[in-house]
């Protein structure tokens, strides 16, 4: 049985005619940059997220960088971020000469812990970047209360959770990426909403911030050849926008398929005492960008399972093997081993199994049978 970590080809096959038609229209029009398909996708994305502003860009890392640029922060200003996440979240902080403050994550959700955020706030703190990791929302209500109390910006890294939503204590919901001042996402092909190439977007309810973002993405220019601020060149091309607009119509369907697959994994693996299946926070609508286990016994047992699965042609991934505060690129910020024990322990235990919208019962049975066999041999 052929198992894919992410099966975009099978997903595309179901909408191939629609995709081919949309791409052909772009190629026939010649409007390859900022064409009608880009404008249509932005409008439909804003409608889907129920926000007034959705600004597309070249990729998810650009989205994070531009979002921070729009806040007019000064070199040395502190930005609180989790250490257990992908490097792009912190990379842009350092590139802008800001100071990343690495904070511990919740051991159940793997997301930023509000309690640790509060303890990390200083007079230099200007922003918080919660990451909705693996498809689950961070606990946004207490984070937003902290931001309001200390006059901080919140930039959501929603690259792995588009289509998820957060439920507040009073029962109302908002889509992830639309709770903070700015939300950012990536359309990398393996994402829940993935292009056939690179792409990204930012969202905001704030008219002033949205206007700044537009200008920054366009070389700092409102009027062609007139540049009032430092900007970048970051845009989503028309072909990718046309493809994304088709796939956006199916995003809820794709996310529901991932949730169905996760539930089947859960049911079968519940009997395995050696693994911890993903936790679903009551405030979060988990959309399972990844299905990530914790393997009790640590790195040796986790790596042995990964080797066993590979021998059976079953892919798996370790997201992430080294926390960011211990990465070589960030040693200059003064962190050392043992400072963030939860994040460090997670890197020893996590293992992500195949997760995508095209998984079947047969796929999941084959994968979990081999997981259980690997555990029995350990």
Distance between the termini: 24 Å
Q: Give me the count of strands.
A: 14
Q: How much of the polypeptide forms β-strand, as a percent range?
A: 5-15%
Radius of gyration: 21 Å
Task: Enumerate the spans where pLDDT stays under 50 for 5 or more consecutive residues.
Answer: none
* Overall mean pLDDT: 97
Spatial strand arrangement across the major sheet: 1-9-8-5-4-2-3
- What is the tally of helical segments? 13
**What would you call the structural class?**
alpha/beta
Shape: globular
Largest sheet, if any?
Answer: 7 strands, mixed
Order of helices and strands: HHHEHEHEHEHEEEEEHEEHHEEHHEH
Helix content: 25-40%
Task: Please render the helix and strand layout as text.
Elements: H1 8-14, H2 16-29, H3 36-49, E1 53-57, H4 60-69, E2 78-82, H5 88-95, E3 99-103, H6 114-120, E4 125-128, H7 140-150, E5 153-157, E6 165-167, E7 173-175, E8 182-186, E9 200-204, H8 207-217, E10 221-223, E11 226-227, H9 238-248, H10 251-269, E12 275-276, E13 291-295, H11 299-311, H12 341-349, E14 350-353, H13 361-377
Helix pairs in contact: 2-9, 3-9, 4-5, 10-13, 11-13
């Amino acid at each position: 049985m052929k198992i894919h970590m992410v099966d975009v080809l099978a997903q595309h096959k179901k909408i191939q005619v629609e995709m081919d038609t949309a791409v052909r229209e772009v190629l026939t029009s010649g409007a390859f940059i900022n064409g009608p398909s880009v404008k249509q996708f932005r409008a439909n994305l804003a409608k889907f997220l129920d926000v007034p502003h959705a600004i597309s860009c070249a990729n998810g890392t650009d989205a994070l960088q531009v979002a921070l640029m729009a806040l007019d922060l000064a070199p040395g200003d502190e930005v609180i971020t989790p250490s257990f996440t992908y490097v792009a979240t912190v990379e842009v902080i350092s590139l802008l000469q800001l100071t990343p403050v690495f904070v511990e994550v919740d051991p159940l959700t793997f997301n930023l812990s509000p309690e640790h955020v509060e303890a990390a706030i200083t007079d230099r703190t200007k922003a918080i970047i919660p990451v909705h990791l693996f498809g689950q929302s961070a606990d946004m209500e207490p984070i937003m209360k902290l931001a309001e109390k200390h006059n901080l910006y919140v930039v959501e890294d929603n690259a792995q959770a588009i289509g998820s939503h957060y439920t507040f204590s009073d029962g109302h919901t908002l889509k992830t990426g639309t709770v903070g001042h700015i939300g950012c996402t990536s359309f990398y092909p393996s994402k829940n909403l993935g292009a056939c190439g690179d792409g990204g977007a930012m969202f905001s309810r704030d008219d002033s911030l949205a206007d700044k973002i537009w200008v920054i993405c366009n070389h700092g220019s409102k009027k062609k050849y007139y540049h009032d601020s430092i900007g970048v060149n970051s845009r989503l091309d028309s072909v990718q926008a046309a493809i994304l607009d088709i796939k956006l119509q199916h995003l809820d369907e794709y996310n529901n398929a991932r949730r169905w697959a996760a539930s089947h994994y859960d049911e079968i693996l519940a009997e395995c005492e050696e693994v911890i299946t993903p936790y679903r926070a009551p405030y979060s609508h988990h959309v399972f960008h990844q299905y990530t286990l914790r393997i009790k016994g640590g790195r040796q047992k986790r790596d042995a399972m990964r080797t066993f699965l590979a021998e059976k042609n079953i892919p798996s991934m370790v997201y992430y093997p080294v926390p960011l505060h211990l990465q070589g690129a960030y040693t200059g910020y003064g962190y050392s081993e043992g400072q963030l024990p939860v994040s460090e322990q997670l890197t020893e235990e996590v293992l992500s199994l195949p997760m995508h919208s095209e998984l079947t019962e047969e796929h999941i049975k084959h994968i979990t049978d081999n997981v259980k066999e690997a555990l029995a041999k350990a």
